[in-house]
Amino acid sequence: MASADLSEKLICSVCLSTCEDPIRLRCGHNFCRECVEDVLHTPEGSGSHTCPQCRDEISEGPALLKVRPLDEDYGTFCTDCTCSPLPAVISCLYCEASLCDNHLRVHSKSEEHVFTKLNLTCSTHKKTLTYYCTEDAACLCVTCSLSEEHRGHHVEPLAEASPKKEESLRNLRETLSKTQKASEERVESLKQYLRGAQEKAAAVTERVVALFKDTRRQLDILETKILKDITDQEEKATASVCDLIHELEIKIAQLSRDMKDVEELCAVPEPLPVLQRWVRHSVGDIEVVHDEDRSDLDVGLISVTLHTALSDIVTKVKRDFYVQQTPDIVLNLNTASNDLHITNDLKSASGSDFKQNRPKLPERFEYNQVLSTRSFPSGRHFLELETCLSGNWRLGMSYPSVARKGYHSLIGHSNKSWGLCRYLNQYFVIHDRRVVPVPHKPSSQRLGIFLDYEAGHIGFYELCDPITHLYTYTSRFQEALYLILSVYTGWVRIRN
Predict the structure, then answer these.
(1) Which of these ranges, 118-122, 204-208, 325-329, 440-444, has the smallest mean pLDDT?
(2) Is residue 440 within 8 Å of residue 468, measured between CB atoms?
């Protein structure tokens, strides 16, 4: 549409053809140079000239007529036009050709041919863009480059600015390429992590299903055994009671007969027959069957059998799921701060209002902290603890090389300890001075720490119903780990 409008403007009103070597008069009409020179040619002395199209008077002579090549207004012309070139409306970057509408229709549409719109003239001054302003990132014509707007700016010819821009674009492309490659690698890494997580979940699911299947099998076997034991004891108890009942019934019948004999003797009036008649029993001869003689159901034996078997099943579950049996854990009194009270069984720690006056040792903490005696240099372990309903305490895992004095000795204030903190009825986790709030309100006194040394995991759990995961740290451990407690108000107790 744009080229059609331009074509109409480029029709010479003298020869009615497309302008050749087109020029424009001051009135704005376009003509072939040769046609307008012929029409405007008048004899010497003629003082005025008129436009062949609008008849507007042109006071100046032909030599003074203001004419201008049209390519300053219409920019680049079509490179495929042979006779009368039309203004180009688009440029093919593959062919390095400028095309009008007519030649664009027949131009190759293959993917290699990339087209771009032409914008080669200044929209303000209608002049060819020949300069580039680096401050404003704008292409300028000569007039624009000299204007007040760009005064003092770094302006350079397009021929000089273009290679710099191309170099900048190449650098940008390289940067984008690197960013794209890094993003693709990140995507691939995340996909691998996703596949790994899915495979791990599938493997754990398979193990759990197999574990429950085996546990159900063992429970079924145990149930059958316990029920059989109950049945056997029931049969034994009922058999002994039935025998006792039968024996007593026989004895009762005999006693009835003896009572009848005694009654008959009592009815005899003569004393001699009474004295001469033999009486089967005397009172001292009668045997009395007591309750101790019966057999009872042994509930104690059933309970012991059940508890022992269930304990064996739980032990097997822990072993099959790679959780080691954690032996008795107690607190190391030599590391306990003098501001901590430790119970006699070395299981509980609480804040103390009085100094404990323990001997000064290099391993003793300055602040309210204490380590366990047992270390965890490998394996998987589950530690269970109990806390008061309120209070200010911390618990977690620590290297033995953690500082004993100063700010860095506190749980989580260095890279040598990992802690769960309760303060103002809110949970926090802290490691290497980084504090993270836990979005779960305390709801249970029982807490668990799951340590997977080889995997580098320390997980904190609240042992409510259901069990709530609070937070898990992931690290690469460099030393054996110890349980560490810190209590300012309230108490913390080890349940293992």
Answers:
(1) 118-122
(2) yes
| Residue spans per domain, the chain | 1-74, 163-293, 333-494
Per the CB < 8 A criterion, the answer to whether 479 and 463 are in contact is: no
Q: Are 458 and 472 in contact (CB under 8 A)?
A: yes
The DSSP output letter for 346 is S
360, with CB counted inside 10 A (0-12, 13-18, 19+), is exposed
Which amino acid, one-letter code, is at 256? Answer: S
Q: How many CA atoms lie within 13 A of 212 on its CB side?
A: 5
In this prediction, residue 68 carries a pLDDT of 46
User: Averaged over 370-380, what is the pLDDT?
Assistant: 92
Strand, helix or coil for residue 75? coil
- Given the candidates 2.70.98.90, 3.90.76.10, 3.30.40.10, 3.40.50.80, the CATH classification of the domain at 1-74 is 3.30.40.10
Instruction: Compute φ and ψ for 99, nearest 5 degrees.
Output: -130, 140
Sheet holding 434-437, edge to edge: 369-376, 481-489, 392-398, 417-422, 427-431, 434-437
Q: Is the model's pTM score more than 0.85?
A: no
Place of tokens 């409008």: 5
If you search the block for the tokens 């109409």, which residue do you land on? 8
Q: Which CATH number describes the domain made up of 333-494? A: 2.60.120.920
Pairwise CA distance, residues 452 & 2, whole Å: 74
Q: Answer for the pair 462, 470: CB distance below 8 angstroms, yes or no.
A: yes
Rounded Cα gap, residues 470 and 450, in angstroms: 11
- Residues 213-244 pLDDT 10s: 888 998 898 889 888 888 888 888 788 778 88
Q: Give the list of residues 6+ apart from residue 193 with CB closer than 8 angstroms, or none.
A: none
Tokens of 484: 């560490």
Q: Give me the pLDDT at residue 438, please.
A: 94
Of 19-23, 116-120, 293-297, where does the model show the most confidence? 19-23
Judging by beta carbons within 10 Å of its beta carbon (0-12, 13-18, 19+), is residue 259 exposed, middle or buried?
exposed
Domain 1-74 matches domain 333-494 at the CATH topology level: no
22-24 and 30-32 beta bridge pairing: antiparallel
pLDDT for the residue numbered 17: 75
In the prediction, which pLDDT does 147 show? 85
Residues with Cβ within 8 Å of residue 208, at least 6 apart in sequence:
none
pLDDT, position 291:
54
